[in-house]
Amino acid sequence: MDLIQDYEQQYAVLTAEITAQIGRIGTTQGGERTKLIADIDRQLEESQELLEQIGLEIRDIPQATRVGYTSRLNCYQAEWKRLQQEFNNAKTARSNRNSGAAGYDSSVDEFDEIGIQEDQKRRLLSNSERLERTGNYLKDGYRVVLETEQIGNQVMQDLNDQRETIQRARGRLRETDAELGRTSRILNTMIFRALREKIVLVGVVVAICCVLFLSIYFSMSD
Questions:
Q1: Where are the beta strands (DSSP E) in the chain?
Q2: From CA 8, how far away is CA 15, in angstroms rounded?
Q3: Does 177 fall in a domain?
Q4: Tens digit of pLDDT for each residue in 148-183?
Q5: What is the DSSP letter of 17?
């Protein structure tokens, strides 16, 4: 999850830079504009690769935390599509202005310059709102990660408590089994002694009966 957060931070920085550069397309010309467009294309590809890396990392995290990260990834992908569309619109708008520039006088050029400035202001406001939304996404994502971590820690604590309870119950069962074994041995000893005493008692009774019988027999013989 630390790697995902690193990718998210890189993506936020990269999209902020892309947003700022898109706003400069309307004010650049010639080779500078060509280089700027090439840089934006490269950065869009890098940001898309970051989103793909985030998607791969999300597949390897537990199911319990995957939902929040997937939702954030969907927001990033939607934001990337808006950046791509804004980039295309900026290139098209400048091309249209250049193709229609012939045949206009200086007053028209000044009016067009004012329009460009207004368009830049709108873009800057839009970019600021986008950056603010991206910051809010990151804050929400960080909050989800903290909540998920707390839930995971609580679950681990509960599992540890249950494991200790099971271990104590197991120990009590072993102690109970040992006590039952000792009790069984004691009962067997008592039963053996009782049987032995009964045998001795029966032998004594038989001996007394024999003595009485012999005494009566000899007394009658006399």
A1: none
A2: 10
A3: no
A4: 777 877 888 888 888 888 988 888 888 888 888 888
A5: H
